Design the sequence.
């Protein structure tokens, strides 16, 4: 579904963001992307929806060489790839319904399809009862679920999330992570860049760790601090291990 | 903001229309003068009327030549007498000093010199005369006039385009979040551009309509008064089709609006 081959990204100002990344993400999988701030998680996601083009290397998304994609073909890619951000990016002068419908309308969808798809995704994220409400009248968790609904309304094959729980408290974080899990179970490939140890450790899914612009580790059933932390914690409570490390200031949620 | 854009287009189209109109009027006046320009080719003494007629026939085949009139010496004298009547005592002209002549008119005033040169080299032509200075000065005037008005019009169009483009850029900026979302969820470039292009088009068309309205007022209210105030000045009523003229000006307004907004949205979307 997703493949990166020898991908290097250097921003126009000379900043190196990614250095020779090779990785594959299978169709229908759920992947966490972790690593310190500035190691290139967001940059990697941007390559996948062609917000950025790699300086060198190949990026393949759903069989398409995204790095060589002509500008006119980008909308087609974007309809296959839903994206969710930490700050939701909802339009504040539109209701939740309008925000979700907007994403469909601007792709030229027919009213009949809008009327069918919008309730479906609002239902899926549990926001059907708040569809007439404006974003500012909602909690962060609710806004993020609305944003996820918007990302899903085009029926994308892939859902990319850049720190989706970054602005949420633990309860809302769990809700959103559960929601992403459910979406994944329905067959959507989900990639989540995150600093949230709780979310990663709860899910025990594939974890790709970036460090110094490169892939440092790639564990099938990973943990936020790496699976070696499990063995080192030997017999210790996993959550305790996470909390100990968060004491070192590595985890924004727990160090709050 | 919209008002600024529309107002600029109005001023642009108004000036454009006035310049084109003035150009046409002056062109017509100048055209009358140019139509009077004649090359006189005087035949040598040895040439027979048949030679002159053969020459006239040859010249008529030249595409630059509009008309050739053969003026035998007797007719030439009569014309000269008419022309000089009252100025000198033409009865003093006892014998006819004039040779047979050809009067040649050209299609394009720019070709006068060239045609005159050709005629001069023809057999049996003794002498060629025409108002060389007058032709030159007229041509130079025309040249300067058209260059100045082209520059002026270009300046107007560019100004209007820049102002529309700025207006659209402000609109785009105000809606940047919406545009970002549209791009994110896969709206096509055309879909995103369309509303802004329409806005630019509307600015252009509304401005042009206002200007055409003002021009129409000028054409039917002011022009007749000007004509009666200056009866000695050869201001003939423009016989051109005002409807077509108006349509062309509307087209210019629309085009400037579309191009300006296209460029400004395009520049925004690329970054
Ligand atoms: N648009 C940009 N122009 C120039 N440099 C950038 C740009 N975006 C990111 N960078 C740089 O690229 C590097 C990787 O940034 P990126 O945002 O991908 O990191 P990240 O892993 O997402 O960090 P965080 O966890 O804080 O979100 C950083 O050094 C950053 O300063
Ligand atoms: Mg980031």
Sequence:
């Amino acid at each position: 579904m997703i493949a990166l081959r020898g991908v290097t990204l250097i921003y126009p100002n000379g900043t190196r963001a990614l250095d020779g990344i090779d990785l594959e993400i299978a169709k229908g999988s759920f992947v966490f992307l972790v690593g310190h701030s500035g190691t290139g998680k967001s940059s990697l996601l941007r390559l996948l929806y062609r917000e950025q083009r790699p300086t060198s290397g190949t990026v393949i998304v759903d069989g398409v060489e995204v790095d060589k994609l002509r500008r006119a073909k980008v909308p087609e890619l974007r309809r296959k790839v839903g994206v969710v951000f930490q700050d939701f990016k909802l339009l504040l002068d539109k209701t939740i319904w309008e925000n979700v419908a907007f994403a469909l309308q601007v792709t030229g969808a027919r009213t009949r399809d809008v009327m069918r798809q919008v309730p479906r995704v609002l239902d899926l994220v549990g926001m059907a009862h708040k569809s007439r409400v404006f974003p500012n009248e909602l909690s962060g968790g609710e806004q993020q679920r609305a944003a996820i609904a918007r990302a899903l309304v085009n029926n994308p094959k892939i859902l990319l999330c850049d720190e989706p729980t970054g602005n949420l408290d633990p309860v809302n974080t769990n809700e959103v992570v559960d929601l992403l899990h459910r979406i994944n179970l329905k067959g959507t490939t989900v990639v989540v860049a995150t600093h949230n140890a709780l979310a990663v450790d709860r899910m025990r899914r594939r974890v790709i760790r970036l460090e110094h612009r490169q892939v440092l580790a790639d564990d099938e059933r990973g943990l936020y601090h790496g699976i070696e932390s499990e063995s080192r914690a030997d017999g210790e409570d996993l959550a305790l291990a996470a909390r100990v490390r968060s004491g070192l200031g590595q985890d924004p949620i727990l160090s709050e | 903001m919209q008002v600024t854009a529309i107002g600029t287009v109005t001023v642009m189209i108004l000036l454009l229309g006035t310049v084109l109109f003035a150009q046409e009027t002056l062109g017509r006046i100048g055209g009358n003068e140019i139509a009077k320009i004649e090359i006189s080719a005087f035949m040598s003494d040895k040439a027979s009327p048949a030679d002159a007629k053969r020459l006239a026939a040859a010249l008529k085949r030249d595409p630059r030549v509009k008309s050739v009139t053969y003026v035998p010496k007797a007719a030439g004298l009569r014309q000269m007498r008419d022309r000089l009547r009252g100025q000198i005592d033409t009865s003093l002209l006892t014998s006819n000093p004039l040779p047979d002549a050809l009067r040649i008119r050209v299609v394009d005033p720019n070709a006068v010199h060239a045609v005159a040169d050709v005629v001069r080299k023809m057999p049996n032509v003794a002498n060629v005369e025409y108002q060389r200075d007058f032709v030159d000065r007229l041509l130079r005037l025309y040249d300067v006039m058209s260059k100045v008005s082209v520059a002026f019009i270009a300046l107007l169009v560019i100004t209007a385009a820049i102002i529309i483009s700025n207006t659209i850029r402000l609109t785009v900026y105000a809606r940047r979040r919406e545009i970002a979302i549209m791009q994110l969820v896969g709206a096509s470039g055309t879909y995103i551009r369309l509303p802004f292009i329409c806005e630019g088009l509307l600015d252009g068309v509304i401005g042009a309509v206002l200007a055409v309205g003002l021009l129409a007022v000028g054409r039917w209210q002011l022009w007749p008064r000007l004509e009666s105030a200056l009866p000695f000045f050869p201001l003939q009523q423009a016989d051109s089709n005002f409807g077509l003229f108006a349509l062309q000006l509307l087209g210019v307004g629309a085009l400037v609006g579309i191009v300006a907004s296209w460029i400004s949205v395009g520049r925004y979307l690329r970054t």
